[in-house]
Amino acid sequence: MKKTVTICFTNNKGGSGKSTTCSNVGAAMARKGKKVLLVDGDMQLNLSLSFFSEEEVLKMAAGEKNLYHAIGKQQDLTDYIVPTAYDNLDLIPSSTQMSSIEYELFTKWQREFILKKCLQKIKDSGVYDYILIDAPPTLGGWVMNILCASDKVLVPVEASPWGMFGLANMFDFLNEVKEIAPDLDVLGIVITKADTRKNYFKQTLEVFHDMKDIQLLESYIRVDSSIEWAQDSSAPVVEFKKSSRSAKEYTALAEEVMERVGR
Fold first, then answer.
1. Residues 195, 163: contact at Cβ < 8 Å?
2. Residues 6+ apart with CB under 8 A from 97
3. Which CATH number fits the domain that encloses residue 49?
4. Domains: count for the chain
5. DSSP code of 3?
6. In this predicted model, what pLDDT tens digit does every residue of 28-71 receive, in sequence order?
7. 138 Cβ contact partners less than 8 Å away, ≥ 6 residues apart
8. Which end of the chain has less Cβ packing within 10 Å, N or C?
């Protein structure tokens, strides 16, 4: 039986391209024949909006077949899976009610491992090659929950002065989580929203290359209007405009991630 690899996409800084990276890496993996489950762990619903219309997403968010209700009931997530319009690609949608999840988890027994338990049956089944989880842009109990349920971590970082801000806190938090989840492996950083014409992009590369113990992925994602048009159409850019620069870059990133994971 094949082993399912769970990858968390996280950054405590908003606007890092986290949800976009998660959705497109997942879609690119699916196009490569991998069976992928996406989990929307963010109350902003951006991962869900990458595959469904706003009306459909709000309907799922208001119902009971979403991640919020599953976590509250500590139920197996199998019955919460929704197929997308694309082969090999499924989603567990989020809810705006996730905003209260920190408070609700506080009194739970072994609260850091609730999501892991809810995903266990799906992982043990071996149905999926990858489970990709989009975490909210915070550092707290729920993100710790997501990290404890993951095998690998990928940190998308915007190539800008503000994109770098707070990154040290992110990695300090990851080190704290590894104290209770020692097998968690940090795949590294992927640069997003890059403008290669600007000197700051080159400076960003130099900063990361000089950092010890932090792996920088070779693939990076440049600024591309095709991404925004894809988002407006509730589709990942690797499906919306396959010939675009960003679609090719996300495909290359997915290939690099699969190679690094060894699957």
1. no
2. 43, 61, 68
3. 3.40.50.300
4. 1
5. P
6. 999 999 999 999 999 999 999 999 999 999 999 999 899 999 98
7. 12
8. N
What is the arithmetic mean of pLDDT over 225-240? 96
Q: Is 66 exposed, middle or buried (0-12, 13-18, 19+ CB in 10 A)?
A: buried
Non-local (6+) Cβ contacts of 205 within 8 A are 191, 216
Residue type, 157: V
CB burial of residue 155 (10 Å; 0-12, 13-18, 19+): buried
Question: Using an 8 Å Cβ cutoff, are 188 and 216 in contact?
Answer: yes
Structural domain including 157 reads 5-261
Alpha-carbon distance of 119 to 90, in angstroms, equals: 14
- The arrangement of strands across the sheet holding 185-194 comes to 82-83, 89-92, 36-40, 130-134, 5-9, 152-158, 185-194, 216-222
